[in-house]
Amino acid sequence: MTSKAYPFGTPSFKAPSFEAPSFEAPSFEAHPFLEVRAVKKSFRDAKDGDIHLVLSSIHFTVNEGEFVTVIGPSGSGKSTLLNIIAGLLPPDEGSVWMQGERQTARAGKVAYMMQDDLLFPWQSVKRHVAMPLRIQGVGKRAAEEQAERILKTFDLIHLGDRYPKTLSGGQKQRVALARAYIQGTALLLLDEPFGRLDALTREDLQAWLETIWLKEKRTVLMVTHDIEEALFLGDRVLVLSARPARIVLDLPVPFARPRKKDVRLTEAFVAFRKTLMQALAEDTQRL
After folding, report:
1. Which residue numbers delimit the ABC transporter domain (predicted)?
2. d(CA 77, CA 236)
């Protein structure tokens, strides 16, 4: 298996060879839905004034309807990358393109779920989910009717009148994801949505998220620290190096969908996990 070609430099890590699994990789349209072109980003240290390069000429594409996951060392700039794609941070160099057009303002085009659920204690679940529509100017009744439809799709309708203090951690994350989905944007950015949950709850929510994604077929770019989560959910896994971050591997994941939990026990899954671990380890040794 080989990594994808890059017009701005070839990733330095080559995946080791092993017996290929029998599954076929999903097919997508050739035209990329999202393209990040040669993006660089630096930050100035508040203490000493030194400038630190965080992202170094990042380039990749995401096809429409594709689920791409991103892993990398802690502090490598994964959240910074999502913030640039969301339009919350400007790149120092490079650009972000969606559907063939360079993007300078992405309001209304991208839904972004950050690490915290950001639920207000005084709002019911239904009103939380309806909130993005209300901000867009949709009337209260119409917004709440749409919220109820999303809650049914997400199997959360029984929680509609409850408040955050009565919800478990997993339920809060489901509500936060439903709130992101209702915005109707074609691109969904997820920043470690399950990172603070226990292992069992996280596995359940991974399977639940895949089920929702298969129904909705939104384009998803998700950051995670969990290699198994990246493999289980992703059509491709992008591996970032340590700072200054670059893409060292773009690994297609060919397992058939829907994916069963026990796919993690297969020889092919273990081999892919080893490939990603070696990509991360090789970059660490380089430093």
Report:
1. 34-267
2. 19
Q: Which helix (H) or strand (E) holds 108?
A: none
Q: Are 52 and 2 in contact (CB under 8 A)?
A: no
Lowest mean per-residue pLDDT among 16-20, 61-65, 190-194: 16-20
CA–chain centroid gap for 108, Å, is 18
- Edge to edge, what strands does the sheet with 101-103 contain? 51-63, 32-44, 93-98, 101-103
Which amino acid would we find at residue 215?
K
Strand bridging mode 93-98 / 32-44: antiparallel
Residue 268 tokens, joined? 């092919």
**What's the CA gap between 159 and 39, in Å, rounded?**
41
pLDDT tens figures, 137-175: 888 889 889 899 889 888 899 999 999 999 988 888 889
Structure tokens at 78: 């994964």
Per-residue model confidence (pLDDT) at position 162: 92
| Angle, CA 177 vertex, CA 164 and CA 243 arms, to 5° | 110
Domain edges within the chain: 32-105+215-286
Residues with Cβ within 8 Å of 207's Cβ and at least 6 positions away in sequence, in order, are 259, 261
pLDDT, tens digit, 9 for 90 and up, residues 79-131 = 999 999 988 899 999 999 988 888 776 656 788 888 777 888 899 999 999 99
pTM of the model: 0.83
Identify residue 237 by its one-letter amino acid code.
V
Tell me which H or E stretch contains 120: none
Q: Are 9 and 57 in contact (CB under 8 A)?
A: yes
Give the integer Cα–Cα distance in Å for 278 and 240: 13
| 231 three-class SS | helix
HEC profile of 71-107 = ECCCCCCHHHHHHHHHCCCCCCEEEEEECCEEECCCC
Instruction: Please name which of 190, 235, 252, 238 lies closest in space to residue 72, comparing C-alpha atoms.
Output: 238
Q: Which amino acid is at 67?
A: F
